[in-house]
């Protein structure tokens, strides 16, 4: 097959993917409980929020209207019947424009939010790296936060003491361990949070944009560490606006648009479909 035939074949496959009903990653023939290789199962996940239709300026005004039955809401569906499975060692990227529902879906997988429809099942220990400073006590020092985060992840003080030196070395924050986190920059918070997350060797790691923070050298260091964890069987779900990063880190991808699953499957095919839907990105970023 020559290059023209190959290109035409790819175009035809992408057109078929775009026109077909939204696919689902993995079939659901085998029950989740019977296949231990499946670490995440999302089935018909939906999420609705209620937003007030008028501006409320204070808590007092809110409660007065609530008691009088004068509150009016508009329902907003963020996610609509999203289904997929992720197996041990796989890496999945979530892509879509702002407001597509990527971060909401990641928070549902993490157990931070309950879906209004459907369900998510997971197995194994999970580390969500979703927001700078999440799970940190900003008034405590870097050293104290290492032990605090370890306790939140189910590790004893003795276990975290054994991990302490490698966490500090990876974060490159040796000089700042006695400094309160409120004096850390966003890049320093990212370094510490990521260093803790990767050192506990989770079964599942959830990453929401935080790898975009920090200098290029540290981003490369994080990517190399993720490669190592992937080779050791860690499963990743990554939210990013960088197509380059998604293609670099993930095998598969899900494209969300207005809360709906547009496409799912091979990362190169799905990201190309997404790119074709919008103007060509600049500097590797998709807005």
Q: How would you describe this protein?
A:
This protein has 287 residues and is α/β, with parallel strands linked by helices. The chain has a domain at 11-59 and 70-124 and 250-287: 3-Layer(aba) Sandwich (Rossmann fold), CATH 3.40.50. The protein is built from nine helices and nine strands. It has helices at 3-19, 59-68, 102-110, 142-152, 157-171, 186-199, 216-231, 243-249, 267-277; strands at residues 38-52, 73-87, 91-95, 117-122, 126-129, 204-208, 235-239, 252-257, 260-266. The protein has a six-stranded mixed beta sheet, sandwiched between helices. The chain has a three-stranded antiparallel beta sheet with strand order 2-1-4. Helix 4 crosses helix 5 and helix 5 packs across helix 6. Mean pLDDT is 82; it is low at 17-22.
Gist of the model:
This protein is of the alpha/beta class and 287 residues long. It has helices spanning 3-19, 59-68, 102-110, 142-152, 157-171, 186-199, 216-231, 243-249, 267-277; strands at 38-52, 73-87, 91-95, 117-122, 126-129, 204-208, 235-239, 252-257, 260-266.
Keywords:
9 helices, globular, alpha/beta, 6-stranded mixed beta sheet, single chain, 287 residues, Rossmann fold, 3-stranded antiparallel beta sheet
């Amino acid at each position: 097959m020559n290059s023209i035939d190959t290109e035409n074949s790819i175009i035809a496959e992408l057109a078929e993917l775009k026109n077909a009903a939204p696919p689902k990653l993995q079939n659901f023939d085998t029950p989740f409980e019977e296949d231990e290789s499946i670490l995440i199962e999302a089935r018909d996940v939906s999420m609705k929020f209620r937003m007030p239709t008028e501006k409320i300026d204070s808590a007092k005004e809110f409660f007065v209207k609530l008691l009088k039955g004068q509150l009016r809401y508009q329902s907003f569906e963020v996610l609509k019947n999203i289904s997929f499975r992720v197996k041990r060692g796989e890496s999945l990227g979530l892509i879509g424009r702002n407001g597509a529902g990527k971060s909401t879906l990641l928070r549902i997988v993490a157990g931070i939010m309950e879906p209004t429809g459907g369900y998510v099942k997971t197995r194994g220990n999970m580390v969500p790296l979703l927001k700078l400073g999440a799970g940190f006590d900003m008034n405590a020092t870097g050293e104290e936060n290492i032990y605090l985060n370890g306790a939140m992840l189910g590790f004893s003080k003795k276990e975290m003491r054994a991990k302490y030196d490698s966490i500090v070395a990876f974060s490159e924050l040796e000089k700042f361990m006695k400094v309160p986190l409120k004096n850390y920059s966003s890049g320093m918070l990212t370094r510490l949070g990521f260093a803790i997350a990767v050192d506990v060797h989770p079964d599942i790691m959830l990453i929401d944009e935080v790898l975009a923070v920090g200098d290029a050298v540290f981003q490369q260091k994080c990517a190399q560490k993720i490669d190592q964890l992937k080779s050791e069987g860690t499963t990743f779900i990554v939210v990013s606006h960088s197509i380059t990063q998604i293609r670099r880190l993930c095998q598969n991808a899900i494209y969300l648009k207005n809360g709906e699953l547009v496409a799912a499957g091979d990362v190169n095919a799905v990201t190309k479909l997404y790119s074709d839907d919008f103007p060509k990105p600049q500097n590797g970023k998709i807005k």
